[in-house]
Amino acid sequence: MTTSSPAVQTLPTRDVFAALDTSPRGLAPAEVALRRERHGPNELPRARRRGWWRDLAGQFTDLFAVLLLIASAITFLAYGLQEPRDTGTLQLAVAILCVVLLNAAIGFVQEYSAERTAESLQAMVPHTCRVLRGGERQELSARDLVPGDVVVLEAGDAVSADCRLVEAHEVSVNNAALTGESDAVGRTRQPVAAGPVLEARNCVFMGTDVVAGSAKAVVFATGAATEFGRIFRLASAAPRQRTPLQRQVASMARRVAGAALAIGALLFAVRLPAGEPLVDTFVFALGVMVALVPEGLPATLSVSLAIGVRRMARHHALVKKLLAVEALGSTTVVCTDKTGTLTQAEMTVVQVWAGGIRHPVSGVGYAPVGEVTDSQPVRELLREASLCCDARMVPPSDHEGWRVLGDTTEGAILVAAAKAGLDLTAEEASTPRVTEFPFDSTRKLMSTVHRDPHGGHHAYVKGAPQELLARCSAVVWKGERRPLTEELRAAVISANDELAAQGLRVLATASRSLPDGRPTQDEAESDLTLLGLVGMLDPPRPEVRDAVDACRHAGIRIVMVTGDHPLTAEAVARRVGIVRQPAPTVVTGTRLDTLDDDALDALLAGSGELLLCRVSPEHKMRVVTALQRRGEVVAVTGDGANDAPALKHADIGVAMGVSGTDVAREAAVMVLLDDSFASITTAVRLGRSVYQNIRKFLIYLFSHNIAELTPILVATFAGFPLVPITAVQILAIDLGSDVLPALALGAEPPEPDVMDRPPRSRRERLFSTAVMGRILFLGGIQSFGVCAVFFWHIHASGIPYADFTKDDTVYREAITMVQAGIVVSQFFNALAVRTDRQSVFRIGLLSNPWLLVAGCFGIALMAAISYVPFLQTIFNTAPLAPAEWAVLVGLGALLLAAEEARKGWLRHRRPADRREGAQ
Ligand code: ATP
User: Where is it localised (predicted)?
Assistant: First the structure.
């Protein structure tokens, strides 16, 4: 059999198996191995990577690089024109070129590693599919599919290979990835006329999604042989996109570059009339301009965002876009599902109710060990409910106990049936399923139609009690079928409420006889006879309570959005701490439908406890939109295929990595590897800390720029003929001493009080007044220190200003002290910016060892510049005496002390001030 038989769509279903050399039971393991060898893994060949040299070349085309390259070229030219030639000019030209090269190297390595991170994160969410092999249903990696495999598809699944349908129940697919057509299209299993396979309505294709229904299909093409493989080559990297934060920083950097240009021009204008040679003055002004450009900033920013992404991944939250890291920090509302996110999704049926009598069920988990009390009257209920299930019980293996393959709600029903002594395989064989109407969370029902061994057919229906009860006309009461009177209906509702109030998830079961096996959905799901209710326990996740508390503390509102009964929802919400007040606001989907947008806005306006129950994914979407209208930053969880619109629309769509469908995972920007609500809280905490860290290194970098510029301005206006710090020295500080501490600040662990503040306002700018104030405060102190040491040293020598030359030892010592002064005070500055309000001694001076290592490296480099003769000639520096170092250390410590005093005053003045940015 060839991989893509052109006629596969024209064959009747029974011939499809023969044509693809397989069977309805799937392939045998030995055959799988052979085919795997023949066809290779089910993967698309990667597009050839863009050549690395092109990525590298790209680094030289951004604004800063171009600006610096021009500056370097002019400086080289100036060196050529100088009479006599000054090696200092040549050194400057080379230094600027080095800056460009170094930056390009950092940017290139950083981008390459970001790409690798994205790839490895993708690999962490395995793409799995369900197949029948040797009659067994298995879940395996989509990579392992081979032609001839029989796959089982459900709403929300991504199709992993090209397949011909052999069974189809109300199936529709979204072929947008292949055809660009985003409307769902129906699929059938019936043969169609020959023609392009892409148009065959009985085939589904790799890269598309099942949006409704369920199906079985036989794989006829895998990997590059699929239609998708023919048309597309996998792009190796996601398109680069910038987050608002990156844009803010880039625009700030551009403004600073503009200011640097203006300052350079100003210095040129002031110094020229003083009689200095034109070329020298020009080179000097250019040097100052280059020195003030914040070259390393964009790379440092990307690195710290990437660190955030990696940290989140370590805490089970995979962020697919950098944008989410930023939005996470300002999240104000989390709309969360219940099952699996707040609870463990490990369902155990603990009560069966039928005909007014409760039957407790013993045992916990999926092992069929336990008993249904007085099981005889409820055996029929459990038999029919379990025949209406798609899940499978998987017996224990060496490393795992009993498991459930598929929906855990259904798994619990199967386990209860087994506890009641039912042999499910035998039941399935004697009452085969002929058709089905799959579960969907808007209808909240599922039904299957079975052939009765004694003739005729039956529909078995299970689902949310309210929905099912509305379709029942009779009830089995004390062993007899009775009309569903108002009185009996009330009895069922009250039994349901009682179970729900205990926090149990409740499903009802009903059935009816049918004249034939091909009813419409409406026929199968109307005029039903109710058999009873099944109540299952789903214990809360132990870690959620603390996470909920943390959110509450951090001013984040949690809204529970569930398809479940209000009483179940409330009981669970109480257990995990989402509800504490006696009367939370509980709104059902039916009530939401009656509200117009204004009424909905009013409902969401308060900050009170809110539970949205019995809602459908469409409601979820409406609530997300309404919250965003109010200016909230909304994170929303989802798992089903029809949660995709809400996930896409929210600021942060969060999909479940374990229980979520492929479609939900595709639509979300964050995937939780463990499905737990606690991971959302951790991601928010890390998101907030990323933002804080970025502020820290911005304050750190910009404050020292002030300290580099001020002495130059002061000297110029004081009439001192030389500069207190040369451009080459400034470049040595920017690229030698400052880059590593800035990176280490970007990797600071979250501050202990990061979740004690309300969310950052969306309108708050990165460079807020508070941040600018702090830059001026720290930069001011540093400037004062270095100006003081420079002029003190110059004045102490007693030499008049006009007599100073570049080669003067006193001048060389003085400029060495300025450079060393900045480096040393930056060491203390790095410690000072680590906290906003808290004392840095409280978080521990040693708690970011990398920062200390980076700071010490900067000082060691400075010492080398001061003492190593070769470097002395390059930088025109001189050896400093121990006493001079001591003075510089004293000035640095003064900066830390002043900052500690400011923080102390802030804490004293506004002890209860919990505003973000109160720094
Ligand atoms: P949660 O917030 O608990 O995660 P949900 O929003 O995911 O709930 P759905 O899965 O849409 O809720 O289920 C809604 C209701 O449909 C459930 O309360 C239950 O009564 C019913 N239900 C759930 N799963 C099934 C199923 N497999 N077959 C029939 N009915 C089901």
Answer: Cell membrane
